[in-house]
Design a protein that fits this description.
Blueprint: H1 2-27, H2 32-47, H3 52-55, H4 65-69, H5 73-83, E1 87-88, E2 91-92, H6 96-117, H7 124-146, H8 149-154, H9 158-187, H10 191-201, H11 205-223, H12 227-260, H13 262-265, H14 273-288, H15 292-303, H16 326-342, H17 347-355, H18 365-381, H19 389-398, H20 406-419, H21 421-424
Helix pairs in contact: 1-6, 1-7, 1-9, 2-5, 2-6, 5-6, 5-7, 5-11, 6-7, 7-9, 9-10, 9-11, 11-12, 14-15, 14-18, 14-20, 15-17, 15-18, 16-17, 18-19
Length: 430
């Protein structure tokens, strides 16, 4: 069903694109000056987009999907403005829905070519979403405006601005629905949590994009195309600032990842243990419907969950803390919490590290996930369970009375069954 939904979205986008390009080539461009100006704006916005590979984390299966949701603010605002353009310097524009889609698609393709040449650029799903959301906005506005109904009903009153804002709200909702459906087909995650994450990502820069799109359309209606560069500069600067913030976050994440490897380098834990626990913990967290911020805290805590072992004189055999006496496991977790606080990570991360060995009823959700996933990796990576994954899950289920939350264990089982143990948590030989 999920695959069918994704192909339905892509197929609809392809049909709309073919119809738009064919119609525009047959009839020619109406008001080519405006089409060129908005096309350049969309292309520049896509060129200024940050390649996904620059902000991704291939070594982790954490909340990296947020990178796919990061829009190209200037390109998105320009596309919405062209879809909502009713006048150009006081003169009616009649470019219509199909020309709007054709111009936006052609400009977006021009803008993504350099990214594709470097091995980056937005995926097919992103392009499909852009086509359908722009077509939706234009189809809701252009026929009403070109027929004169919108002017008859609202004129140039403030209600027109309110109408445009409501229309953009519906457009953002449409985009979120499409994005969640495509992400569900790509990742296999439940649709509800995906839609919730998409809706949570829309405020902030999403609101700025919608507001700027409305202001651009209204500004061009009064002042002409010269209004475009005036309203584009602030959004372009905002986009550059977002790139810098993303770079800082990536550096911070890499620092935490490197710090977490200290236990492996010192021989306290098995190679790749912290990264496997982080990857699988994030998969379980997404299955439980955690928000992006909660997933980030979970990822950091999972990476650092064994950092307390650096304080031990005698290492735990194979670094496996799952079968230690409860008092000893809590002592190591407490040491880890102190170390985590010294690194400057958010307080929530240190709390999760500190409480990971407590009974699950006394833990926050992130600590429950880390404890169960850490125990699973300890069991399947060591020599104690020749039965492998199924035997390890069975032992976790036997401990759900006190040590492991039943819902977390069942989510872990679903993730492993859906995505495959060898791909989600690869265990290096030896």
């Amino acid at each position: 069903m999920r695959g069918a939904a994704a192909w339905s979205v892509r197929g609809a986008a392809a049909l709309v694109t073919v119809a738009a390009l064919g119609h525009t080539l047959w009839t020619g461009l109406l008001d080519p000056g405006a089409a060129l100006a908005f096309g350049i704006l969309v292309a520049v916005g896509e060129l200024a987009r940050r390649d996904r590979r620059a902000g991704g984390r291939p070594e982790l299966a954490g909340p990296a999907e947020a990178e796919d949701r990061r829009p190209a603010p200037l390109g998105s605002a320009g596309a919405l403005a062209y879809a909502l353009l009713g006048q150009n310097a006081g003169q009616p524009s009649h470019h219509g829905v199909l020309q709007t889609v054709a111009v936006v698609v052609a400009a977006a393709l021009v803008g993504v070519v350099p990214h594709i040449a470097r091995g980056g650029g937005p995926a097919l799903d992103h392009v499909a979403r852009r086509v359908l959301t722009v077509a939706f906005a234009a189809a809701c506005f252009q026929p009403l405006y070109n027929s004169g109904r919108l002017e008859h009903w609202l004129g140039q009153s403030p209600y027109l601005v309110l109408f445009l804002l409501c229309l953009l709200f519906l457009t953002a909702l449409c985009d979120a629905v499409l994005a969640a459906a495509l992400a569900g087909a790509r990742t296999g995650r439940p649709y509800g949590p995906l839609l919730r994450d998409e809706l949570r990502s829309r405020p902030g820069i999403g609101s700025a994009i919608c507001a700027t799109g409305v202001v651009m359309a209204l500004g061009v209606a009064v002042a002409g195309l010269w209004a475009l560069p005036v309203f584009s500069v602030p959004l372009l600067l905002t986009q550059l600032s977002l790139h810098r913030i993303a770079a800082v976050r990536t550096t911070y994440r890499q620092t935490i990842t490197s710090l977490a490897r200290a236990t492996e380098i010192a021989g306290y834990t098995r190679p790749g243990h912290s990264r496997r626990v982080a990857a699988l913990s994030c998969a379980v967290g997404r299955e439980l419907g955690l928000s992006e911020r909660e997933l980030t805290v979970l990822e950091y805590a999972a990476l650092m969950h064994d950092i307390g072992q650096l304080s031990l004189v005698d290492p735990v055999p194979e670094g496996a803390t799952a079968e230690l006496p409860p008092a000893e496991a809590r002592r190591i977790a407490g040491l880890g919490g102190e170390v985590a606080r010294q690194t400057g990570v958010p307080a929530e991360v240190a709390v999760v590290v500190e409480l990971q060995a407590d009974p699950y009823r006394e833990q926050p959700v992130a600590a429950r996930i880390v404890r169960a996933v850490n125990a699973y990796d300890d069991l399947v990576a060591g020599s104690r369970h020749p039965g492998g994954s199924l035997a390890a899950l069975e032992q976790l289920r036997l401990g759900t009375g006190r040590d492991y939350e039943p819902e977390v264990v069942e989510c872990l089982a679903r993730v492993l069954a859906r995505e495959g143990r060898d791909r989600v948590v690869p265990v290096p030989p030896g």
